[in-house]
Design brief:
The chain contains 46 helices and nine strands. By secondary structure, it is mainly alpha-helical. The strands form three sheets. Strands 3-6-5-4 form a four-stranded antiparallel β-sheet. Strands 7-8-9 form a three-stranded antiparallel β-sheet, covered by helices on one side. About 1% of the residues have low confidence.
Length: 912
């Protein structure tokens, strides 16, 4: 099939594309090429307007947010609950053994009993592992206490099953050559894991497998013709299935499931030639810091604690974790990579019933509680997840010590851990003991937590309402859920043309769903003591109960007298109240509007009701929509309130005609409504991006006028192919010179095609405005590589904002050396204390995070900043967070085959 055929096919049929196993393409392999190819394919699909839904799967730890866009949703497959796991057991047993079969019933009973054991229940977290457990229990009666024991038993079960096949010579090979078959699994599992770190889709050619079998047989002393005969039998068996080895593609051998390969690789590391403690320690140390090998390391760890023959390696695991924390690698030291590894070991339940080792690993793990970046990222969640067994004792002591700090910032991370453990009695007692009495400290803790547990909500119920709405209104999901429960928003469909394309709007009704609206508002501000700015929301229930111009005027007068309410309340008030607040900018405005209400300028309640009913029963045309938005310019509502003034946008299509885009831009310029400026801004920005850029709709001068009036950014501008490009470059130059840049650009938001154009323009003119724009591109993950480093010397620029821009651009260039990175860090400190411009530090962190995997010297830059930062300040936390990202991509120490030979590990295929 040709590329053209595929594109044509995609235009005619709906598609579901499933991309499985993104985590199996490691960053050290061709992951960048893979994700880029996917992006290109999706872009082409959008160009032909394909009806395409894509599902990509990955282990959570193997996903680096490569596909974050406004059109992407991330979903996590949660571990099976005990109830769901047992339901799966019942269904699988019925399918495998037959409904009512005594053997199946025995398996179900056995696993029901095992589910009451905490360790066994942990193993029932995925359908795959439950499948393994059913197979093992059916054959041996016990599932094992950790993942290594489970996979080891599963291997033995499948091996025994294979020996029972009715093929005499195959049975003889399995029965008489068990050590050979085991060795083949271990060595091939390791080799495929090793090769997979630098390549994707790795398998072993059958011809190479035959050579390996031949070599191993001869090493055991076998001679021809027996070697040829046994090799032929084993290779033939593997082409169908040899225990765990199988051939999904003809002529290629692999493991059917990734976890089986990882188990086999762990066995190779722990056994075979040279498996004395020192050799094993060196092998495990070589993979300890590499996330790609993490499951292999955990299988090996579990073997140490489950296999009597490997128990002498138990202390090695703790030593490796400690060595990582004390590593000569400054990045590992900074992020406490050994503590991070200790968390994974504890979470895997590999340690089993060894309280001494569990305590020691927990002490290492909870050292992260003292790190500044504990309040960022997933560290608190991961620490809370290991709070069981002996680890719980360490956690409790560490939390008590950390929460006793006087500085609130130093204990925010500890609060995040504690609030995830509130079902524990001791955690509840710590909460009551250390919960602050001062309001700002309470809010600092609350704002550091994504989801409020009940205990926090109860403690903050009064504090929340006593604070200014601007400080707390959007800080917690609970408030938004209450707002959503007030009523179901009434949608107003605005057809764009005679197709299904439309805008969907919503507003807070007054006359519809009256009971639900009153009940909803009654749940808000349900206290007698509250900040004066909340008063207008408190009175909303009275207004909905009996709407009138006189009551609304009274409410506005009360609000003006008490405290002018924050504009963010506009979006949650009944629409006539929202109109009045949106039209005002001061207490004096509220009083003026109240007087106009009493004079009947804005109509009566009956007029408002008619307006609401007209929109609930009729759709309005696109022309009517833009006309009504235009009417907002004068503020003259012709005797009635305008619902569209404060309606919110639910959804919109981005396919518009040229005239419709011009109409939207005209309405955007005309409207006085702050909210509708934002809504129309969003519509126009998205539509222009979807239509191929603003330059296909506007001339540079027209767009410059639009930008001057409403501030719409030209990141939606494609590169013109005509001589008109100079006008657009002048617009970029003006923006970079005159305005405050946003904090950063989202990855993929800015068109990379502009980058070389703007770089060339800078090189010819050395304009600081273009330099600032290019620094924004650098913060959006775009490499600025056409500007020579000598043109980015800080001393070339007098303006400090241009100096800062030069630093950000240099950080995107792979040629940056460690010594220069340290010099740039010193320059940054000068420009950040105080900040040279608003959001400067935020843009710095974004740039460093986006390029650190490409530019190794950024690590030296961040480490230098760490030296000058207080151990607990936010700057240190951001440095650590970015360094942790670098550590999460660290490869193993197996660089080449010579490294394997030094550790007596197999080299199965010699590189020619």
């Amino acid at each position: 099939m040709t590329h053209e055929d595929l594109m044509e096919w995609m235009t005619k049929y709906p598609w579901l594309l499933v991309l499985d196993g993104l985590d199996e393409v490691p960053s050290s392999s061709n992951r960048g090429d893979t994700t880029e190819a996917i992006d290109v394919f999706l872009a082409e699909a959008r160009q032909v307007d394909a009806d395409l839904f894509v599902v990509a799967s990955s282990r959570a730890e193997g996903y680096d947010q490569e596909f974050i866009t406004p059109l992407t949703a991330t979903r996590y497959v949660l571990p099976l609950s005990k109830v769901r796991a047992l339901r799966y057991v019942e269904r699988y047993a019925a399918a495998r053994f037959g409904k009512g079969d005594p053997k199946g019933d025995d398996v179900v009973r056995s696993l029901r009993a095992s589910a009451n054991d905490e360790l066994s229940c942990e193993l029932m977290s995925s359908p795959l592992q439950v499948t393994f457990m059913v197979t093992v229990v059916a054959a041996q009666g016990v599932p094992g206490e950790n993942r290594w024991r489970l996979l080891h038993s599963y291997y033995n079960t499948i091996y025994d099953r294979e020996t029972q096949k009715e093929v005499d010579h195959y049975k003889r090979v399995l029965a008489d050559h068990r050590q050979l078959v085991d060795r083949l699994h271990h060595d091939i599992g390791f080799w495929l894991q090793y090769k997979g770190e630098s390549e994707s889709g790795v398998s072993l050619p059958s011809s190479d497998f035959a050579c390996i079998v031949d070599r191993y047989l001869r090493e055991e002393g076998h001679e021809d013709p027996e070697v040829r005969q046994l090799t032929q039998i084993i290779v033939a068996a593997a082409s169908e299935r040899l225990v765990f080895l199988t051939s999904r593609i003809k002529g290629e051998l692999t493991f059917e499931v990734r976890s089986l390969q990882e188990y086999a690789a762990a066995e190779c590391l722990m056994t075979g030639h040279g498996s004395d403690p020192e050799i094993v320690k060196k092998r495990l140390s070589a993979i300890a810091a590499a996330p790609y090998w993490r499951n292999v390391f955990l299988f090996a760890t579990a073997k140490c604690f489950a296999d009597t023959n490997a128990r002498h390696h138990q202390d090695t695991i703790r030593i490796i974790c400690q060595d990582l924390n004390d590593s000569e690698n400054p990045v590992f030291q900074a992020v406490r990579a050994g503590s991070d590894l200790a968390i994974d070991v504890l979470r895997s339940r590999s340690v089993g019933q060894n309280p001494k080792q569990e305590r020691q690993l927990a002490q290492l793990a909870f050292q992260l509680m003292r790190e500044p970046d504990i309040q960022l990222g997933k560290v608190p969640l991961r620490l809370a997840a290991i709070c069981f067994g002996k680890s719980e004792e360490i956690c409790r002591a560490e939390l008590g010590d950390r929460l006793g700090q006087s500085d609130t910032n130093k204990k925010l991370g500890a609060w995040q851990v504690l609030l995830r453990l509130q079902e524990r009695q001791w955690a509840s007692e710590l909460f009551k003991r250390f919960w602050p009495s001062e309001g700002t400290q309470k809010l600092a803790i609350a704002n550091s937590v994504a989801v409020w547990p009940d205990c926090l909500r109860e403690e903050l119920s009064s504090t929340f309402w006593q604070c200014e709405p601007a400080k707390v209104l959007w800080s917690e999901a609970w408030f938004h859920s209450k707002v959503q429960q007030m009523s179901t928003p009434i949608s107003v469909a605005v057809p764009v043309r005679a197709t299904t394309a439309h805008l969907a709007l919503a507003y807070r009704p007054v006359f519809s769903n009256k009971k639900d609206v009153i009940d909803g508002y009654s749940q808000l501000v349900n206290t007698t003591e509250y900040h004066p700015e909340w008063h207008i929301l408190k009175r909303a229930v009275d207004f909905v109960h009996q709407p009138s111009t006189q009551l609304l005027a009274t409410i506005l007068e009360e609000a003006a007298e008490r405290a002018y309410p924050n504009q963010s309340l506009t979006s949650i008030l009944p629409w006539p109240m929202s109109n009045c607040l949106a039209m005002s900018s001061s207490p004096e405005d509220l009083l003026r509007i109240a007087a106009d209400l009493r004079l009947g300028r804005f109509g009566e309640a009956s007029d408002w009701k008619a307006t609401e009913e007209s929109l609930t029963s009729n759709k309005i045309s696109f022309d009517q929509f833009t006309t009504r938005i235009h009417a907002l310019e004068s503020g003259d509502w012709d005797g009635g309130m305008e619902i569209l003034n404060t309606a919110s946008l639910i959804s919109f299509d981005t396919q518009f005609t040229h005239n419709e885009l011009i109409a939207i831009s005209g309405a955007l310029v005309a409207t006085r409504s702050r909210l509708w400026k934002l809504e129309l801004f969003e519509i126009l920005s998205s539509a222009l991006e979807n239509e191929g850029g603003a330059s296909r709709v506007f001339t540079a001068k027209q767009f410059e006028d639009l930008w001057s009036q409403v501030g719409i950014w030209p990141h939606c501008v494609d590169v013109p192919v005509t001589s008109a490009i100079s006008g657009w470059i002048n617009l970029w130059r003006r923006i970079g010179t005159e305005v405050q840049l946003p904090p950063y650009g989202q990855k993929g938001e800015w068109d990379p095609d502009w980058s070389p154009v703007l770089q060339d323009a800078f090189l010819s003119e050395c304009d600081g405005g273009l330099l600032r724009i290019l620094s924004h591109y650098a913060a959006s993950a775009i490499v600025i590589d056409r500007i020579p480093p000598d043109r980015l010397q800080v001393h070339h620029f007098e303006d400090k904002t241009y100096q800062f821009a030069a630093i950000l651009i240099r950080l995107s260039q792979a040629s940056l050396s460690e010594s220069e990175a340290c010099q740039l860090a010193e320059e940054c400190l000068r420009l950040l204390d105080p900040e040279v411009e608003e959001y400067a530090e935020e843009r710095l962190w974004t740039t460093a995070a986006e390029h650190i995997l490409r530019v190794p010297a950024i690590a030296a830059f961040l480490l230098h900043l760490l030296k000058t930062s207080d151990a607990d300040d936010l700057r240190a936390a951001r440095c650590n967070t970015i360094l942790r990202r670098l550590a999460s991509k660290h490869p193993s120490d197996f660089r080449n085959e010579s490294d394997l030979r030094k550790l007596h590990l197999p080299v199965l295929v010699e590189q020619g």
